[in-house]
């Protein structure tokens, strides 16, 4: 498989907009490991190997364990995640698959049980941002770095 084109070269203005969105997420109050769990889970759902490669490395650099990374696609059955993390993973899945059922009240309310309104807004923006990156990488067949 070959990369179709590099978005940053073909559409630098659009790509710069994505980086501005990413930069805004950098100042988020959300725990860095939790951010990476969001990015990995959404990337699994979207089949984005480029982003999976990047964010599993980033998660490990932030102290995440191999066991939790490997089990993430089966987080509901795995005993390794806190209730707070489970709320975020459910939110991640709902927002990633927004066309299926929107963001169900029970998923939103569980997130709000653990996070303030402002933090919940940050979580949603994190999910939206990684979904946009996933779509760019999958559509252009961006190849992971070694």
UniProtKB/TrEMBL annotation:
Gene Ontology terms for molecular function: peroxiredoxin activity
UniProt-listed InterPro entries: AhpD-like, AhpD_core, CMD-like
Record-linked Pfam families: CMD
Domain spans labelled Carboxymuconolactone decarboxylase-like: 15-93
Matches recorded under PANTHER family: 4-CARBOXYMUCONOLACTONE DECARBOXYLASE FAMILY PROTEIN (AFU_ORTHOLOGUE AFUA_6G11590) (PTHR34846), CYTOPLASMIC PROTEIN (PTHR34846:SF10)
Name this protein carries in UniProt: Carboxymuconolactone decarboxylase family protein
Organism listed in the record: Bacillus swezeyi
Top-level taxon of the source organism: Bacteria
């Amino acid at each position: 498989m070959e990369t179709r084109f590099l978005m940053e070269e073909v559409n630098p203005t659009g790509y710069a907009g994505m980086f501005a969105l990413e930069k805004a997420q950098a100042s988020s109050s959300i725990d860095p490991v939790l951010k990476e769990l969001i990015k990995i889970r959404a990337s699994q759902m979207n089949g984005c190997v480029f982003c999976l490669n990047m964010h599993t490395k980033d998660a490990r650099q932030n102290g995440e364990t191999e066991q939790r990374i490997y089990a993430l696609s089966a987080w509901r059955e795995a005993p390794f995640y806190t209730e707070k993390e489970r709320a975020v993973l459910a939110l991640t899945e709902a927002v990633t698959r927004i066309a299926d059922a929107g963001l169900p009240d029970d998923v939103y309310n569980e997130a709000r049980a653990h996070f303030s309104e402002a933090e919940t807004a940050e979580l949603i923006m994190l999910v939206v941002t990684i979904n946009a990156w996933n779509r760019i990488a999958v559509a252009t067949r961006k190849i992971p770095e070694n």
